[in-house]
Amino acid sequence: MMSTETISAISTATGEAGIGIVRMSGEKSVEIANSMFKPISKKSLTDSENRKLLYGHIYDGDKLIDEVLIAKMMAPSTYTREDVVEIYCHGGIISVRKILNMTLDRGARIAEPGEFTKRAFLNGRLDLTQAEAVIDLIKSKSEISYDVSIRQLEGSLSGKIEEIREKVMSMTALIVANIDFPEDEIVEATYSSLNSDAKDVIKSLDELIENSNRGKLLRDGINTVILGKPNVGKSSLLNGLLRDERAIVTDIPGTTRDVITDYVNLEGILLKITDTAGIRNTEDKVEKIGVDLAKKSIEDSDLVIAIFDGSRPFDINDEEIINLIKNKKSIILMNKSDLSRVVSEKDIRELLGDREYLDISVVGQGEILKIEEQIKNMFFDGEIRENSEVYVNNLRHVRALKRARESMDEVKLDIDNEVFLDLLEVNLEDVLSSLGEITGQTTTEDVLDKVFSEFCIGK
Predict the structure, then answer these.
(1) Is 443 within any annotated ligand binding site?
(2) Residue 254 annotated as binding site
(3) Residue 250 among known ligand-binding residues
(4) 252 is in an annotated binding site
(5) Annotated binding residue at 236?
(6) Which of 147-161, 197-211, 239-253 has the lowest mean pLDDT?
(7) Are 441 and 356 found together in one domain?
(8) Of the segments 278-282, 362-366, 397-401, which one has the largest average pLDDT value?
(9) 87 with 22: CB under 8 angstroms?
(10) In this structure, what CATH number is given to the domain that contains residue 288?
(11) Is 458 contained in some domain?
């Protein structure tokens, strides 16, 4: 699926840097680059060796633009499986933009977001899971998410999907053979053997679906919201987790009026921590906006750390907080254990019911470690690690797996009821179609556009 258009883009981040890269892909890449480049060696880019850096200058007519290194990489052994040229110039806004504009003036067009990787997919170098791993790799914010992305780029997920597809295709082929060639000497498609194969496929699908929650956490981190009424210690907790004075801490209620977000690396896992405005009824319009944002942030959270002040009597605001988190995974802190306790255990039980809580003072670093240990216990059985399992960390993949699972349930039910073999074939084709969406074998143009729109332009 080689494109006739040559695309060009800046492949390095905007700003001052030692090197900036302008990349082209397509059949006119070498021709365009050769028209701009004057090598010191007097040997043109066209006549130079493949994958060898040449030193020289970029000229726009008689005007010197920059001193560069340039390399051509000829199809099919390139990232896109098309002819590729990369120009390594001085980093900075002016130089790379001038060179990019020169490539566009000479026949290239600006690349769309992710178009280099999209061409790698369309030309068969990567499947869709590997292409998506590229953007995950770029966006990784922790070592573990990086390791998961590397393994997916190497084909760990696509290999597992292909194993399941092969099992389903074997079932389909056996059924088709028995329908089309009933009198030939072929293996009989017994309901017993088909039932065994269906159970194997369902088990494999379930394993991937069950790993998806962990995979999402490994990739995106734990979206954590700190919740409580004013002056219970939310900002102190944020500062303690960050090991930094990130939020302002005062005795004045309502100091935090906006949502404050920062990140903590917990043994390789990212905690995206949001400190919110104190939950209370208020007539202050600005503070009320902050309270509304705090309540909204709970909806998308993976974890809520709810803080209560044991040195003050509970009130209606504390009751509202408990109602807000009743369906969320949460850690409950009874803070200010270093002060005189006003609430009794009976008061606590009336508020929390049978829910467990930590009796702490968030100003102590040892107490912060207790909270981190509880997070590890809640999400990772006490130990954060990335093992050799295949993780599904993409919502698109999870939805396709669930559709495949639903179709496989229909297959299993039909086998149990010993329906006609040709009816089994229909649902098996649905399974194959859903699995093919994950790797890109049966996907649509709309899906491809959505996937690659998340990339930066130069990748």
Answers:
(1) no
(2) yes
(3) yes
(4) yes
(5) yes
(6) 239-253
(7) no
(8) 397-401
(9) yes
(10) 3.40.50.300
(11) no
Could you report the per-residue pLDDT of 73-107, keeping only the tens digit for each? Answer: 999 999 999 999 999 999 989 999 999 999 999 99
256 labelled binding-site residue = yes
- Say whether 113 counts as a known binding-site residue: no
71 has a pLDDT exceeding 70: yes
Say whether 26 counts as a known binding-site residue: no
For residues 305 and 423, state if they share a domain: no
Instruction: Establish whether 235 is an annotated binding residue.
Output: yes
399 is in an annotated binding site: no
239/376 same-domain check: yes
- Tell me what the mean pLDDT of segment 50-55 comes to: 95
- Pairing type for strands 269-275 and 7-10 reads unpaired
Q: Using DSSP, how many helices (H) and how many strands (E) does the chain show?
A: 16, 13
Residue 69 belongs to a domain with what CATH number?
3.30.1360.120
**DSSP state at residue 111:** P
76 in a known ligand binding site: no
Please enumerate in sequence order all residues whose Cβ is within 8 A of that of 279, keeping only pairs 6 or more positions apart, or say none: 227, 228, 229, 291, 294, 295, 317, 320, 321, 324
Tens digit of each residue's pLDDT (9 = 90 or more) over 373-393? 888 888 876 555 555 578 888
Q: Count the domains in the chain.
A: 3
Residue 219, annotated ligand binder?
Answer: no
Residues 376, 251, single domain; the answer is yes
Same domain, 420 and 322: no
Query: Which of 380, 403, 423 is the last residue before a domain boundary?
Result: 380
Domain range enclosing 11 = 7-111
Q: Is 313 annotated as a binding residue?
A: no
Q: 15 among the known binding-site residues? A: no
Query: Tokens 């999870």 label which residue?
Result: 398
Do both 347 and 405 map to the same domain? no
State whether 311 and 290 are in the same domain: yes
Dump pLDDT digits (tens) for 21-52.
999 999 999 999 999 999 998 788 999 999 99
If you average pLDDT over every residue of the chain, what do you get?
86
C-alpha–C-alpha distance, residues 80 and 452, integer Å: 14
**Rounded Cα–Cα distance for residues 171 and 424 (Å):** 9
Give a yes or no: residue 1 inside a domain: no
Does the annotation list 233 as a binding residue? yes
**276 labelled as ligand-binding?**
yes
Considering the domain architecture, whether residues 267 and 400 belong to the same structural domain is answered as: no
Phi, psi of 336 (to 5 degrees): 70, 45
Was 20 annotated as part of a binding site? no
Amino acid at residue number 108: A
Bridge partners (DSSP) of residue 23 are 9, 86
Please check if 86 is assigned to a binding site.
yes
Residue 52 assigned as binding residue: no
**387 located within any domain:** no
Token duo for residue 184: 């030939």
